[in-house]
Amino acid sequence: MRKLLVLALVGLVAQLIDGSLGMAYGLTSSTLLLVAGVAPAAASASVHLAEIGTTLAAGVAHWRFGNVDWRVVTRIALPGAIGAFAGATLLSSISTEAAAPWMAGILFTLGAYLLVRFARPLRTDRVGGRLRGRFLGPLGLVAGFVDATGGGGWGPVATPALLVSGRMEPRKVIGSVDTAEFVVAGAASVGFLIGLGSEGFLLPTVAALLIGGLIAAPLAAWLVRIVPAQLLGAAVGGVIVLTNARTLIRSAELDGPVRPVTYALLAAGWLAALVLAVRALRRTRRARAEAASAPSAATVPAALPEVATTDEAAADLAATATPTTR
Questions:
Q1: What's the count of helices (H) and strands (E) in the chain, helices before strands?
Q2: Are 247 and 100 in contact (CB under 8 A)?
Q3: Would you give the distance in Å from CA 9 to the centre of its chain?
Q4: Using CA atoms, how far apart are residues 299 and 283, in angstroms rounded to an integer?
Q5: How far is it, in rounded angstroms, from Cα 34 to Cα 278?
Q6: How distant, in Å, are the alpha carbons of 127, 192, 252 from that of 91?
Q7: Does residue 130 or residue 304 have the better pLDDT?
Q8: Within 119-202, where are the H helices?
Q9: Residue 163: C-alpha distances to residues 251, 252, 271 (Å)
């Protein structure tokens, strides 16, 4: 019971992160299950089955808050489903010993990508225009495949790519990616069901993750408007990197002083990414404040001559009126 409560809490936190950042539900949950000793295929299968419910709830909540671009959803979901089904089929056919370092390597890479991506300012200067299907289709295909083979990756691949394009508001990027993930999670679950059978799903784990995720989904859709994605992305990336580094170090059989030195270097990199993320967030907020104050400042000099002209006209009128009175 204690383990299930912990998993429910993990599902709640993971959905809060995913719903407000557009990624990391699968990464966070799969990383925990791997640390707990669950086989990679079973971990990914259980997480994706739970995601069917959490992504449905998240999609509805994002839709209610106006965070969904349905054109993007329809063009990215189907290729994502195809990629996820192929990835689930591949992971189901790999042995646990071979899959563990492979899956940890994918998660580690995605975590490092989050650190690098969110240590820099998020680009939103080209909001407007339309994303083409020839960009969304391949993006969905790759993101879906990585998601199924790594136990997570749909958001870390799709969300930054859409943010970098600058053609969507960040909240609509997150809402659209989360909504499309419902189709991707369903396709991955079908692939795992065919490859592993029903025994490949850890149903108590699925239930715990699902309950926590359902509780957090509406709150996360609201938090996306106020939580700084810059800090959240860097924080989650560091946790994923350090956790999966443990599996990779064990697979590489690194002993002696190499292990603590590696952890120290990774922790230092995480700290540096957090510092850079804070600086990037401050620069972004400062730039927005300057852009907001620029129009009002520009209108002040234009108003001064009008006031001066009015005063001068009044003075001239008084001067001309005085002699007439005398």
A1: 11, 0
A2: yes
A3: 19
A4: 25
A5: 31
A6: 38, 8, 21
A7: 130
A8: 133-150, 154-165, 170-196
A9: 35, 35, 24
CA atoms within 13 A on the CB side of 76: 31
Three-class SS of residue 167? coil
User: Hey, what amino acid is at 128?
Assistant: G
172 torsion bin: left (phi>0), alpha (psi -120 to 50), beta (else) = alpha
In total, the chain counts a number of residues equal to 326
Instruction: Estimate the crossing angle of helix 40-64 against helix 170-196, to 10 degrees.
Output: 140
Neighbour-count burial of 152, counting CB atoms closer than 10 A to its CB (0-12 exposed, 13-18 middle, 19+ buried): buried
Distance CA 56, CA 320 (A): 79
Q: Which two tokens stand for residue 265?
A: 């270097």
- How much is the pTM? 0.64
Q: For 116-137, how does the pLDDT look when each residue is reduced to its tens digit (9 = 90+)?
A: 877 877 655 555 557 777 888 9
